[in-house]
Specification:
It comes from Methyloprofundus sedimenti. This is VanZ-like domain-containing protein. Keywords: Membrane, Transmembrane, Transmembrane helix. By secondary structure, the chain is mainly α. The chain has one domain. It has four helices and no strands. It is globular, with a radius of gyration of 14 Å.
Length: about 110
């Protein structure tokens, strides 16, 4: 359980500094939704299905995540929300990796 708490705590610290560096307001409803979608897609798809249970290949999982996240960005574009930049790609990648690590350590803890 200590490893799960460590991943969550270190992830929060890194997340805070990335938000400050890129001037991202993570407490708006739009960004909370984006962060939750990216975190839990990394948590479930990468962390649990790929790394822990090894039921999916990494290539197929990355295609699933890519389709899922691009469709979310297209939906934002239709609603006239333009947040597609290099900084947001780094931010989204951080959320995916943090979710994947948290999902892997969460499943290891359930054993």
């Amino acid at each position: 359980m200590k490893s799960l708490y460590a991943v969550l705590f270190i992830g929060l610290i890194v997340f805070y500094f990335v938000d400050i560096a890129f001037h991202v307001d993570s407490f708006s409803l739009e960004m909370i939704t984006h962060n939750l979608v990216r975190f839990f897609s990394g948590f479930a798809i990468l962390g649990i299905w790929v790394w822990y249970e090894q039921k999916l290949e990494i290539k197929i999982a990355l295609y699933i995540i890519l389709v899922f996240l691009v469709s979310d960005d297209i939906f934002d574009y239709i609603r006239n929300i333009d947040n597609f930049s290099f900084e947001m790609i780094i931010h989204d990648l951080l959320m995916l990796v943090w979710g994947a690590l948290a999902g892997f350590f969460f499943m290891r803890r359930l054993e």
